[in-house]
Amino acid sequence: MATSVGKRKIVLRLFHEGFSFREISEKTSLSKGGCYKIIKNSIEVPKLSTRGKPRSVSSDEVVSFIEYMKKKSPSIQIKEIRAKLLEHGICTENELPSITTISRIIRDYLGMTRKIMEQVPHETTSDHHDTLVNNYMSSILTYKPEQIHFFDECSVVRTSGNRRYGHSLSGERAVEVQRYASNAKYTLNLLCNIFEIGHFEIIEGASNALEMLDFFQRSVHEKNSMGNPIFNRGDVVVMDNCGFHHHRVYEGRLRNLLNQIGVELVFQPPYSPELNACEYVFHLMKEKLRQNSEFTYDYTELAITRALTKVESRSISQIYRKCGYV
């Protein structure tokens, strides 16, 4: 049955006053679909569902600006994007898209999802840092892969075996009672080469320059799985730029110790943990510690040792390849 002219005028008036299709339908006793057809035939509106309020219409310029801001700063919040839209004159106060509209653009139109942020140090984005990395790689690749040894330290607490992921019903938090002992700390000193973990030591508490020097004084006498010295003349040891690695006394002593057996000491570029193979070995080790959290808590040192012995030679070779040394 045709809708009277009077009701059509009421529908249009309510729409212009900001009422939703549901509210207009209730006030006029018309269906939401009927209300939408009246409005669609009378004025230009976007195609949308007849449920709830009509969606905001966003121009290509607004969408492009939202995409630019999210790519430039993934952590920027929607309310900050709205402020930027006004600040840069992309749209006026009346044209400003709602929080829901911006959220829909980010999710549905741009295909972006919310995830844990990966932090990248600002210093790594400079040309100077790129030059340091290029110079380091040019220098280190003059060595054969089997000549390159990596050293690093890793902190391990008794609760390192605590698992970080679990299951729960949708919409509910996953909660599990776990042991807490953040003060029970160990440090793992690790030396690895492309074939295997050359030498490691576990100490209670934090490491320091003296512990590092003592570690290498023992390492130079260690044998590999074939019964040969882990260091050969012409080899190189690579480590990061931790503060005590550059100790005014112990760095010189370490260089002298290594030079006596024909081994060079090289420091990787700052803010470049991905260039140190030990970092990936630590990751594999902690994955194995989480497989038996009770054992890790009760016998932390033994658990670390057991985890390291399970790191396969093939895995370390793949790490060298991932770092670009093969």
Written account of the structure:
- With 326 residues, the protein is of the alpha/beta class.
- It is built from 13 helices and five strands.
- The protein has helices at residues 5-16, 21-28, 32-42, 60-72, 78-87, 99-109, 127-140, 209-219, 250-259, 277-289, 293-298, 300-309, 313-323, and strands at 148-157, 185-192, 197-204, 236-239, 264-267.
- A five-stranded mixed sheet has the order 3-2-1-4-5, with helices on both faces.
- Helix 1 (5-16) crosses helix 3 (32-42), helix 8 (209-219) packs parallel to helix 9 and helix 10 packs across helix 12.
Short description:
With 326 residues, the chain is an alpha/beta fold. The chain is built from 13 helices and 5 strands. The chain is elongated and about 100 Å long.
